[in-house]
Amino acid sequence: MMEDVKIGEILAPGSEDDNRRREERVRDRFWKTARRAARQVPFMEDVVAGYYCALDRDTPPRVRGILLAALAYFILPLDTIPDFLAGFGFTDDVAVLMAALNAVRTHVTPVHRQAAQRTLEAEEQR
């Protein structure tokens, strides 16, 4: 597992400019990565709910920043453990996502969770 200090560095909310860039990257690449990781991330519904929370303008800026940082790390193809390594590739991503979602769990609303459920159900029917 990754060290807490490392995760803390990754999850730094960042400046407004950092978050704007992260949001663009996340919007562009999230679904492609999520589809690839779906079987390796046991709490994908929470990740998708976190995605919707991060894009919600009513979510506090610090919370959005933490989620965008975690989601940006998730979509990076080369990180601490490259995602293409079968069985191991998303291990570090899972640690970062769990830490972020745990830190902001009270801000992920039932609306975000419902959107995640609907989206994942639609993906399963594809």
Describe it.
This protein is mostly helical. It has one domain. Helix content is 67%, strand content 0%. Helix 3 crosses helix 6 and helix 4 packs antiparallel against helix 5. The protein is globular. The N and C termini lie far apart (34 Å). 34% of the residues are buried. The N terminus is likely disordered.
- Helices and strands, in order, run as HHHHHH
- What is the typical, i.e. mean, pLDDT? 84
Secondary-structure-based class equals: mainly alpha
**Helicity level, as a percent range?**
55-70%
Radius of gyration: 13 Å
Q: Kindly, what is the distance between the CA atoms of the first and last residues, rounded to a whole number of angstroms?
A: 34 Å
Major pleated sheet: none
Q: Estimate the strand proportion.
A: under 5%
Number of helices: 6
Principal-axes shape call: globular
Low-confidence stretches: 1-5, 79-88
Query: What is the count of distinct domains?
Result: 1
Number of strands: 0
Summed up, what is this model?
The chain has 126 residues and is mostly helical. 67% of the residues lie in helices and 0% in strands.
List keywords for this structure.
single chain; 126 residues; mainly alpha; disordered N terminus
What order do the helices and strands come in, and which of them pair?
Layout: H1 4-10, H2 16-37, H3 44-55, H4 61-75, H5 91-104, H6 110-124
